[in-house]
Design goal:
The chain is mostly beta strands. The chain folds into two domains: 32-111, Carboxypeptidase-like, regulatory domain (Immunoglobulin-like, Sandwich); 122-474 and 483-736, TonB-dependent receptor, beta-barrel domain (Maltoporin, Chain A, Beta Barrel). The protein is 5% helix and 58% strand. The protein is built from five helices and 48 strands. The strands form nine sheets. The chain has a 22-stranded antiparallel barrel. Strands 10-9-11-18-19-14-15 form a seven-stranded mixed sheet. Strands 1, 4, 7 and 8 form a four-stranded mixed sheet that branches. It is globular, with a radius of gyration of 27 Å. It starts with 5 loop residues before the first helix and ends with a strand.
Length: 737
């Protein structure tokens, strides 16, 4: 880490560590035979075990803290005791018990998530899929639902594509746009480490598959806008992912196989203080390739290996170490290889009964070496391009959460990111009159520092406030920006919940944007800026039915404009040359009971951009998608049968018509995108083996969806466009030991 920023990390660590030590448990009286009180603490909604819950006995002042498995143990005198259970982010629980002499008593508790958790508004669970809690605009997705929702490719990114405010017109790609933002405007974290482009099959601009293994996920948090000060350096959205550590109970395994992929997981205890997990995945390219017009030319292959180890290093200190290695090899349309490597170490430390300290160190590396042969359909001219890139991120994060009292809590943190970009793109073009060469080189090594604070106020049972601020400094652009954030929630009696958010967000240039500036011989671009204004309403209609409405405005300036060509490729500007404005409204109706989980999202959005230099005025942003409708339905037909349906509609993205003979930069829209998927699964158990088999159809009605144009004509009756996947049938099974 750079010597210039290390003192900042030391300063914040010093501030958050000036906290009283953990209270020691008072020993029971020797006049009585000791009794043992034990149990497990769980989340009331998700039923997951809760770590670092403080248990206090008011009579003896004895105290305990739950470990990673949510369990606790107290040695007490026999007789009546009054216990309190407190955890940051949860409402306190209290219970009175009578402990028998010389015996043990089990007391299990559930805690209800506090309304102070503004970044979680909806939970999707196995049996009770959608349960509203106070918050603003976020979605916490239960991992058990991700695979059923994501479809044939089993990708958490594709699950996010079904959420309100998210636009995606390509079932072959994992990238997505949120509320009119660019695909680079989304912050993605895995176990606290930032990911840039963690994709397989990304050699084509229109395909990708996330390297994140959905079967390892413990927590999926998606925030479409108005996020708190903890998250920064992005203009649009946050996707925060966390892997589970593996079971501590016994050695277990899982094997999955479908027509498109194969995967295996092995997990189990490593000692009495820890557990480990490792997974492997690979794919068969031939099955999907034969559905594509140029599939015979595509022969990609990939694999990834991932793992995590968790251990209780000492009382009150839990450490995890995780890794991800993904490798792709291509041939045909694109020749070469690329890989992604992530190493991360994280810790959670109990500094006092009311304070937790979270720390992490990570290193992320992505390498690419690709070559493409291109032929122009219009002129027959040839071109060959080569891409060589190495992108490295090294990051340190430190955050403290302190529950000062039942009405106020404080979050303080700092993020330090050091990065190296070494990118080289070369092109050789055989034109009719002459040959030409082009070269773009980016070589940058710099750092970014951020410090933030969040104040959580529970004014009363109905009114909640999160007031925070974030300070971002970029050594590359020599800028320091302050971004205030304010979120409020008010519940009218037991009825509707009113929400509002206001925040200022900054984003440093991505390496794609910096490469464009380097190619033009320009200085690096500056930070982009966006104001978020969000208001919302949540109304429970019945016990199983609820309505959510959210309206937003994003006012942006100092933007780095970009264009989507007919081919689907994105071209970035070498300078901050635009301002933007996005407004929209989203409606969501959800239904939940013991057998049915369903929701429908309807969104309307207008995204425009004004290039302040070209004089063309306000035009549609490439992320403009006027209308979006998504429906997800899950029905448990019987104890073992589950039916999943999913339907998506989106009006076409805007793109630049760069065909010869037309006005330069004419903005048009792709045709509308329509798709429906169905999945039927059956679960059964034989002794210690649990199995699931499924049958799935993607694009059930074989809609002809367009992802790019290949020729000069735009007449829908003329076959000059490239199509997405037709109807695809997939079958598979899962065996868990």
């Amino acid at each position: 880490m750079s010597a210039r920023v290390a003192p900042l990390l030391f300063l914040v660590a010093s501030l958050v560590c000036r906290i009283p030590p953990i209270a020691q448990s008072q020993q029971p009286s020797p006049l009585h035979r000791h009794s043992v009180l034990f149990g497990t603490l769980r989340d009331a909604s998700t039923k997951e075990t809760l770590q670092y819950v403080n248990i206090t006995d008011f009579e003896t002042k004895s105290a305990a803290v739950t470990g990673t498995g949510g369990g606790y143990r107290l040695v007490l005198n026999p007789g009546p005791h009054s216990l309190q259970f407190t955890c940051i982010g949860y409402n306190a629980g209290r219970i009175s018990v009578s402990v028998p002499e010389g015996d043990s008593l089990r007391v299990d508790m559930v805690l209800v998530s506090s309304a102070l958790l503004f970044d979680e508004v909806t939970i999707i669970a196995e049996r009770s899929p959608r349960s509203t809690i106070h918050g603003l605009g976020a979605l916490s997705i239960q991992p058990g639902q991700v695979q059923n929702i994501s479809g044939v490719f089993s990708d958490v990114y594709r699950t996010v594509q079904t959420m309100a405010g998210v636009a995606s017109n390509n079932e072959m790609a994992s990238q997505f746009s949120v509320r009119g933002g660019a695909i680079d405007d989304n912050l993605v974290l895995l176990n606290g480490a930032q990911l840039l482009e963690p994709f397989h099959l990304k050699e084509s601009p229109n395909t990708s598959l996330s390297t994140v293994n959905v079967d390892l996920l413990k927590r999926v948090l998606f925030i479409p806008g108005g996020f708190t000060a903890q998250y920064g350096d992005r203009l649009s959205a946050v996707l925060d992912l966390e892997y589970r550590e593996g079971t501590r109970e016994r050695l277990a395994g899982q094997v999955d196989a479908t027509l498109t992929s194969v995967a295996a997981i092995l997990e189990g205890p490593l000692s009495s203080f820890g557990s480990g997990l490792i997974s492997f995945r690979s794919t068969y390219s031939s099955y999907i390739s034969h559905y594509l017009a140029d599939g015979a030319k595509r022969t990609p292959s990939f694999y990834d290996v991932q793992g995590i180890i968790g251990t209780d290093a000492a009382e009150g200190h839990h450490l995890t170490a995780s890794f991800l290695f993904a490798s792709d090899r291509t041939s045909g349309l694109v020749d070469g290889s690329y890989r992604t490597t992530l190493l991360s170490i994280a810790g959670t430390h109990i500094l006092s009964r009311g304070t937790l300290l979270h720390s992490s160190l990570s290193s992320y590396l992505q390498d690419e070496n690709l070559a493409r042969n291109l032929v122009s359909i219009q002129t027959g001219e040839n071109a060959r391009t080569s891409d060589h890139s190495s992108v490295t991120l090294r990051e340190a994060r430190l955050r403290s959460d302190t529950q000062v009292n039942s009405f106020y809590s404080l979050t303080l943190g700092t993020d330090i990111l050091e990065y190296e970009y070494n990118v080289e793109k070369r092109g050789y073009f055989a034109l009719a009159n002459r040959d030409s060469m082009s070269t773009a080189i980016l070589s940058r090594n710099s750092y970014k520092v951020a410090m933030y604070a969040e104040n959580h106020f529970q004014v009363n049972k109905s009114f909640l406030v999160n007031a925070g601020t974030r300070l971002d400094h970029s050594a590359l652009t020599h800028e320091m920006k302050l971004g205030p954030r304010l979120l409020t929630v008010y519940r009218i009696g037991t009825g509707p919940i009113l929400k509002a958010a206001l925040g200022l967000y900054y984003q440093t240039p991505s390496y794609h944007e910096l490469l464009a500036a380097s190619f033009a011989g320009a200085s690096p671009q500056g930070m982009q800026r966006a104001w978020h204004y969000v208001v919302g309403l949540e109304q429970p209609l019945q016990d199983i039915l609820s309505l959510r409405v959210e309206a937003y405005l994003k006012d942006m300036d100092n933007l780095i404009s970009f264009k989507r060509l007919r081919s689907g490729e994105l071209i970035y500007s070498p300078r901050n040359d635009a301002e933007g404005r996005v407004h929209g409204i989203e409606f969501e109706m959800s239904l939940t009971d013991s057998r049915v989980m369903a929701w429908i999202n309807v969104a309307y959005m207008v995204a425009k951009e004004n290039n302040v230099y070209d004089g063309r005025g306000w035009q549609y942003r490439p992320s403009d998608q006027r209308k979006t409708v998504t429906t997800v339905f899950e029905y448990r037909i019987a104890n073992r049968w589950v039916l999943n349906l999913r339907a998506l509609y989106g009006s076409g993205y805007a793109y630049v018509n760069d065909s010869p003979g037309v006005e330069r930069d004419t903005r048009l829209h792709y045709p509308d995108y329509k798709r429906a998927d169905v999945r039927l699964s059956y679960a059964f158990k034989f002794e210690a083996i649990t199995s699931v088999v499924f049958f799935e159809i993607t694009n059930l009605f074989a809609h002809r969806n367009v992802y790019s144009f290949a020729g000069a004509l735009q007449d829908p009756q003329t076959p000059d466009y490239n199509l997405l996947l037709p109807m695809i049938i997939n079958v598979g099974f899962r065996i868990r030991l």
